[in-house]
Amino acid sequence: MGRPVAAARRYAEAAFQVALAESQLDRWQADLAAAAAMLGRSDVEPTVHSPAVPLTERVEIVRQLLEPRIAPGPLLGRAYKHLLAVRMDQGPIGREAAIAALQAWWADQPESDTAT
Questions:
Q1: Quick check: helix, strand or coil at residue 39?
Q2: How would you class 102 by CB atoms within 10 Å of its CB: exposed for 0-12, middle for 13-18, buried for 19 or more?
Q3: pLDDT tens per residue across span 17-35
Q4: Own/partner long-range contacts of 39-45 (Cβ < 8 Å, ≥24 apart)
Q5: Cys-Cys crosslink for 76: which of 49, 72, 84, 103, Cβ 3.0 to 4.6 Å?
Q6: Distance of alpha carbon 18 from alpha carbon 99, whole angstroms
Q7: To 10 degrees, the CA torsion angle through 57, 4, 69, 21?
Q8: What digits encode the pLDDT tens for the residues 59-113?
Q9: Is residue 82 part of a domain?
Q10: In terms of residue numbers, what domain contains 60?
Q11: Using CA atoms, how far apart are residues 98 and 55, in angstroms rounded to an integer?
């Protein structure tokens, strides 16, 4: 179980860098707190952590619970897709590489102060 947690941590840290760059850290913290509270409920937590429930079903449960409360913006979606593409091209990468890839991507975005 250590490997998926480590990978999730790397991508979360890279996403944190985007939140900082967008000056959206307060919103992200509020969304994360809301997600943690929702997924930690006694009627939800056992289901989303159960290996007996198929992964696709667990993902759908989480989506249905969080989607009405946490509306990810288009920029987050683009950053996520970029990190997925990097993962598909390069395989698992370390924290520093994930942050560097996200920062390079961010520099090319129209919302970035450094975009050309």
A1: helix
A2: buried
A3: 777 777 777 877 777 777 7
A4: 39/65, 39/66
A5: 72
A6: 9
A7: -150
A8: 788 778 777 666 556 766 777 778 778 877 887 777 777 777 878 888 887 776 6
A9: yes
A10: 2-107
A11: 25
d(CA 62, CA 41): 12
Residue 14 lies in a domain: yes
Q: What is the reported pTM?
A: 0.47
What is the token pair recorded at 51? 């290996």
In a domain, 38, yes or no: yes
Q: Is residue 116 part of a domain?
A: no
Choice between 60 and 3, residue whose per-residue pLDDT is larger: 60
- Separation between Cα atoms, residue 21 and residue 38, nearest integer Å: 27
Number of domains in the chain: 1
